[in-house]
Amino acid sequence: MRRALPAAPRRSRSTMLLMLGLAALVAASFATLPLEWAALFSADALRSSGEFLAGFAPPETALPFLQKTLAATLETLSMSALGTLLAVIGGMALAMPAAGRFGKVLRVPARGVLNVLRSIPELVWASLLLVAAGLGPFAGTLALAAHTSGVLGRLFADVIENAEPHPERSLRANGATAGAAFLYSTLPQALPQMLSYTLYRWENNIRAAAVLGVVGAGGLGQMLKYHLSLFQMEQAATVIIAMLVLVALVDAASFALRRALTR
Question: Which Pfam families match (predicted)?
Answer without folding.
Answer: BPD_transp_1
